[in-house]
Design goal:
The protein is of the alpha/beta class. The chain folds into three domains: 72 residues, DNA polymerase, domain 1 (Orthogonal Bundle), CATH 1.10.150; 191 residues, Rossmann fold; 62 residues, Winged helix-like DNA-binding domain superfamily/Winged helix DNA-binding domain (Arc Repressor Mutant, subunit A). It is 44% helix and 14% strand. The strands form two sheets. It has a nine-stranded mixed beta sheet, sandwiched between helices. It has a three-stranded antiparallel beta sheet with strand order 10-12-11. Helix 11 packs across helix 12, helix 17 crosses helix 19 and helix 18 packs across helix 19. It is elongated and about 85 Å long.
């Protein structure tokens, strides 16, 4: 009458029964069908199961399984896997509150290939954006999978860096995997749906709410071999991810910043607590779990042109056409925004001259205006 998927769907949708209880039942009975068919006294023998929980299970069993729902087609391109499946990530099974069901578009991370989570502030600096992009680009070029949460800021640039390198990147979302949030990231959402992964424990159609985002952080860290934090305020979601990573036995790296910058406080706190200082991206590659997987992986992407992501990316064709004054301006720009007056003084140029040269550099795609009158070099 019922098939395996029917039983799994039933177990995943018992009102008032969450992941921790489901995992305890699975430890005792092995699969959803045995739970559905178990006698009351057998269910009560399960650790942590009381009469109240048994009543919820019995009420759901008496209602039967709605096969029209359990056998309904998922939205286009969507798949799901249950914890009892061989396709379910092994690293995720280690969580005591592992989600029983994962919904995803694209594909799940390859567990024989190293994965690194890159997370950080939504309202980040240009420095943070550049480092997230370049670090992820470097790691993806070396064959490392990049995991993040597709939030604005650091997450976005981590995904973009990996995609730009032609590597695999997955977003763990706080909504259904069929919903792109924030909408501004629709382009990378589409790209990851095809060449990476969009993963969620929430059913299709689930809208993003505040409480879902701390929940998804444990999945980000669980799927990764190491976690990198780039810019984070005190008591931020990134620190929650880092804390969960430490509980899960993962290495945590923090990118240091200026001690006067509020966005540096989270990373500096992590370093005080024993996180590794990220001073050279090659340190990530030499981390034992990552180095071991890299040596076994045959899916390593072509090596990048740069040695490290900390180097500046440049457009050699555009650079060759620069005037002496424009080259001087470019050499003085980095991740820290600089204004026209400062650049005019440093380069000994008039207001009219500096304006003309800045316009040429913007049109050449070498610099950009990040706020009125303030410019940074594009990496």
């Amino acid at each position: 009458m019922y098939n395996e998927n029917d039983y799994n769907f039933w177990l995943a949708n018992i009102p008032g029964v969450g992941n921790i209880t489901i995992n305890r039942l699975l430890d005792h009975f092995e699969n959803a069908e045995k739970i559905f068919k178990a006698k009351d006294h057998e269910i009560l023998e399960t650790e942590g199961i009381n009469i109240k929980t048994l009543s919820k299970i019995n009420k759901s069993r008496e209602a039967g399984i709605n096969t029209s729902k359990s056998r309904a087609h998922l939205p286009s391109g969507m798949k799901c896997t249950y914890k009892t499946s061989v396709y379910y990530p092994k690293k995720l099974k280690e969580l005591y509150d592992a989600p029983f069901c994962l919904y995803y578009k694209g594909r799940l991370p390859d567990e024989t290939v190293p994965s690194v989570a890159v997370v950080g502030a939504r309202s980040c600096t240009e420095y943070g954006k550049n480092q997230a992009f370049e670090l992820s680009h470097f790691l993806a070029s070396e064959g490392v999978q990049i995991i993040s949460g597709m939030a604005a800021g650091i997450d976005t640039y981590a995904h973009r860096g990996a995609l730009n390198a032609g590597g695999y990147t997955a977003a763990i979302t706080g909504s259904g995997a069929d919903i792109c949030y924030p909408q501004i990231n629709f382009d990378i959402y589409q790209s990851m749906s095809l060449s990476g992964g969009i993963i969620s424990e929430f059913p299709p159609g689930t809208t993003p709410v505040a409480g879902h985002f701390p929940m998804r952080n444990r999945i980000i860290s669980a799927l990764s071999d190491a976690v990198i934090v780039i810019e984070a305020r005190e008591r931020s979601g990134s620190l929650i991810t880092a804390d969960q990573a430490l509980e899960q036995g993962r290495d945590v790296y923090a990118l240091p910043g200026r001690i006067t910058d509020p966005l540096s406080r989270g990373c500096l706190w992590l370093i005080e607590q024993g996180a590794y200082v990220l001073s050279d991206p090659k340190d990530i590659l030499s981390s034992p779990p990552i180095a071991r997987k890299l040596s076994l992986s045959q899916k390593k992407a072509p090596a990048p042109e740069q040695n490290t992501p900390m180097q500046k990316l440049s457009n050699t064709d555009n650079l060759s056409n620069l005037s002496k004054a424009e080259a001087d301006i470019l050499s003085r720009l980095n991740d820290e925004p600089a204004g026209l007056n400062k650049l005019s003084s440093l380069c000994s140029l008039s207001s009219e001259e500096i304006t003309t040269h800045i316009l040429n550099l913007c049109l050449s795609g070498l610099i950009k205006e990040v706020s009125p009158g303030l410019y940074v070099r594009i990496r």
